[in-house]
Amino acid sequence: MTPDASDGPGAPSEAGAGAERPLRADARRNRARVLAAADAVFAAKGTGASTEEVAREAGVGIGTVFRHFPTKEALLTAVLVDRLRRLAEDAEAQAGAADPGAVFFAFFARVVEQGRTKNAFTDVLHEAGVDVTAATAEYGKRVRAAVAELLARAQRAGAVREDVGVAELLALMAGVSRAAERAASDGEVRAKALAIVFDGLRPRP
Amino acid sequence: MTPDASDGPGAPSEAGAGAERPLRADARRNRARVLAAADAVFAAKGTGASTEEVAREAGVGIGTVFRHFPTKEALLTAVLVDRLRRLAEDAEAQAGAADPGAVFFAFFARVVEQGRTKNAFTDVLHEAGVDVTAATAEYGKRVRAAVAELLARAQRAGAVREDVGVAELLALMAGVSRAAERAASDGEVRAKALAIVFDGLRPRP
Amino acid sequence: MTPDASDGPGAPSEAGAGAERPLRADARRNRARVLAAADAVFAAKGTGASTEEVAREAGVGIGTVFRHFPTKEALLTAVLVDRLRRLAEDAEAQAGAADPGAVFFAFFARVVEQGRTKNAFTDVLHEAGVDVTAATAEYGKRVRAAVAELLARAQRAGAVREDVGVAELLALMAGVSRAAERAASDGEVRAKALAIVFDGLRPRP
Amino acid sequence: MTPDASDGPGAPSEAGAGAERPLRADARRNRARVLAAADAVFAAKGTGASTEEVAREAGVGIGTVFRHFPTKEALLTAVLVDRLRRLAEDAEAQAGAADPGAVFFAFFARVVEQGRTKNAFTDVLHEAGVDVTAATAEYGKRVRAAVAELLARAQRAGAVREDVGVAELLALMAGVSRAAERAASDGEVRAKALAIVFDGLRPRP
DNA sequence: CATGAATGAGGCTTCATTCAT
DNA sequence: CATGAATGAAGCCTCATTCAT
């Protein structure tokens, strides 16, 4: 793992900076298609899936994948960062909503439900709690902050125990997501496991 | 991936069948060494580790590995089965102990703690809950039964909610193990996450 | 990089055809820049250097390189031809000078010294002696003629043995250049090796 | 160029040490075949030739090449070392012969003649003079020593100028070999070029 | 039985060349 | 005309698996 395998400071289109050339229209389209394909393929078959399969899924040549992501590791990192970004945006979108308790548990459940199919999404959650690489650090922080906000509001509303911290919350989200993913076929088991964790999170009466 | 690439129902020496020759003494020794090495290597580096590394760790030639486990998948399955066996034996050993509640939670905690270093152990737990392959089915059932017994006793003793089933329990064990594994460096986070789940498992006062 | 990367005689205008349009001003400028960049890059990193690197060094797009030189081989040939042209011009410039002996040896030394940094220049010299391709043939002949003239004058002045021909002279220039290039760090070794060859070229007393 | 791309301290069979396992009979045979094939292929097509072609020429699978030489660079280095070894042995074999002058010039001529087809042999000679890598250092020294001995004896016998050193001698051998290689088709040119250098090496009358 | 050499399919990556913008 | 994105063949290397020793 080279330390600098990132795709640069975020996708060109979203880095506020602007130093990166804006990328031609078709190039941007292809980059997005490759990223989406990579997300799907790696989710379905694990990170061991071949780059060639990503290319095939994206409907582009193998060279195109490597033009946008010069390394397989860079591609994996980009997928990770993208997931973190979506997660952060999702959490941020809930920040102002009413009924913080309901919002908090709904967010938790949604994360778990998504993680069920998006396999490695759970690993992403871990990143948010630990901030491993420089590339993911930025978005990891954002996720952490947004989730912390949801948690704090839910606690203030008396819906969640006061002694719960973000770290263990993220760890639990990741863990339950992974568990849910395995028990994929049985929705009831998933629901019950989630209910148990939710009960554990609520204040003791 | 053939679903049934196992080495047979467990090591030849323990299958009820009996048609399998009993294996020479040195052969048995080698099989055990390979299995132990595989467990260690796959735990440390993931299932992507090379067969050759397993052979090196075991101190045998590569040919020996393939003589005992004709496929890498067979080797992985054998490791899985072995883990399930140890897990079942561990649970079975607690069956008669006093204070079923304490025993139950201690077992849960021990599983999580082991899973922390034995990475894929968590995946094993899933197998126990789902019984994917024919190979793991037997030991999966045994684990399930042993854990069910521990759970039932704890419930009878009033230490665990009545509406918790084995399926979600195993799922939670797997999930928390995974969470613990990620938060490897932070023991406090691990403890808190575990406490939350334990609280969720206890009867509402 | 190269002092004289002009487009001059060597531009498309020399293909017997003559139907080639005279090239727009900016196009001519770009062609020269690409050629100079290619000379520098191939000299520094060998002919294995990528076309893209040439484009970068020239400050143009990759498409521009291929517009002017439809093939990498065409680009290499153009560099070769350009070097031959400069070599010929250098030799021709000395044709009328006084003290033909000194001029001859100075020219030899200069070629070797240039070849030391301009790596493949030595290969160029060979081309001059052998006229491999049709493309280099013309300038190869010119170099040969110019060097032959320098040699003849030196021989007439009694500074060089009568039995030395152009062919072996060019071969020696190429060889010593190559040797010098390897012994790059040790100027004294280079000087001594050159002195030995020079002594071999002088008439026996 | 990783510093440690060597094949180890020489081919196992020839390192006096003996710590390296002796290599099975068939393995040794294959290693030799690969090395010979590599020598031939790289000589004929340059170091850019593909490893696959070496394998084909050797009549082995691609994996076999990489088993013996874990990197293309390692393979190239091994070829280099082997050439140096043969060169050293050749020179050492002449050490005791009568008529040191004749022996010296014959050796020089033979080196050049071999270098003519063995393209990169010339580059090898350079290594002998410079000792670039640790891998070639050992044999480079041996070549240097053996050639120095031949030179010293020739000088003592009055056949070679006193002021010639090994460094420039090796440089000249490399250079003339390269020149000869280019003038491949014309034996007379080669002979004349060699004669000129020989004259330069002889004492002035 | 144990060993490790041989094998070759498959993965990642580079790069000359083409073509839409 | 200039640009740079797209393409895919080809190269290096890894690794599961087979088989002679």
> How many structurally independent domains of chain A?
2
What is the third-level CATH name, the topology of the largest domain in chain A?
A: Tetracycline Repressor, domain 2
- Specify the oligomeric state: homotetramer
CA-atom Rg of chain A in angstroms = 18 Å
How far apart the termini of chain A lie comes to 48 Å
Query: Helicity level of chain A, as a percent range?
Result: 55-70%
- From the coordinates shown, what is the CATH architecture of the largest domain in chain A? Orthogonal Bundle
Total strands of chain A: the figure is 0
Biased composition (Low complexity) (chains A, B, C, D): 1-20
Pfam families (chains A, B, C, D): TetR_C_43, TetR_N
Organism (chains A, B, C, D): Sphaerisporangium album
Region (Disordered) (chains A, B, C, D): 1-23
General description of the model:
- Four copies of one chain form a homotetramer.
- With 205 residues, the first copy, chain A, is mainly α.
- Helices cover 69% and strands 0% of the residues of chain A.
- In chain A, helix 1 (25-45) crosses helix 4 (72-94).
- The first copy, chain A, is elongated and about 60 Å long.
